[in-house]
């Protein structure tokens, strides 16, 4: 990444629950031009038109980032794909309308029923 994260998100939508194995999908959102793929060519999977593309390593299958079709100027990098995510703290929970009862909102985080405005 060539820029600082804009914000930290926990997404509770069904597509993200599938990708994350049932838990919310934790991402750090960056300007799209800050993403620098240093090895290989990522492969893409589209669960639904609303979710955009989920990009993963074609060699090991690790999900690396998502790029929403409706918001192409941003990229959501999966926290688990980073070598150092020690500064990660959820700032917003989104798609709470899809969260199962055991998903709890993060303390001090903004809450959105679906996508944040903007």
TrEMBL record:
Source organism of this protein record: Caulobacter vibrioides (Caulobacter crescentus)
Pfam family, one: GFA
Domain of life (superkingdom): Bacteria
PANTHER family attached to this UniProt entry: CENP-V_GFA DOMAIN-CONTAINING PROTEIN-RELATED (PTHR33337:SF40), GFA DOMAIN-CONTAINING PROTEIN (PTHR33337)
Protein name as catalogued: CENP-V/GFA domain-containing protein
UniProt family annotation: Belongs to the Gfa family.
Keywords: Lyase, Metal-binding, Zinc
Start and end residues of each CENP-V/GFA domain: 1-103
InterPro entries in alphabetical order: CENP-V/GFA, Mss4-like_sf
GO MF term (any one): carbon-sulfur lyase activity
């Amino acid at each position: 990444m060539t820029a600082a994260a804009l914000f930290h998100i926990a997404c509770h939508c069904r597509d993200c629950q599938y990708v994350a194995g049932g838990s919310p999908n934790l991402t750090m959102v960056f300007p799209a031009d800050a993403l620098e793929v240093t090895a290989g060519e990522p492969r893409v999977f589209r669960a639904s038109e609303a979710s955009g593309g989920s990009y993963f390593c074609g060699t090991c299958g690790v999900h690396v980032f998502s790029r929403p079709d409706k918001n192409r100027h941003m990229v959501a990098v999966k926290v688990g794909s980073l070598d150092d995510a020690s500064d990660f703290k959820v700032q917003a929970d989104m798609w709470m309308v899809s969260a199962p009862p055991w998903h709890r909102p993060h303390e001090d985080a903004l809450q959105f029923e679906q996508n944040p405005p903007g």
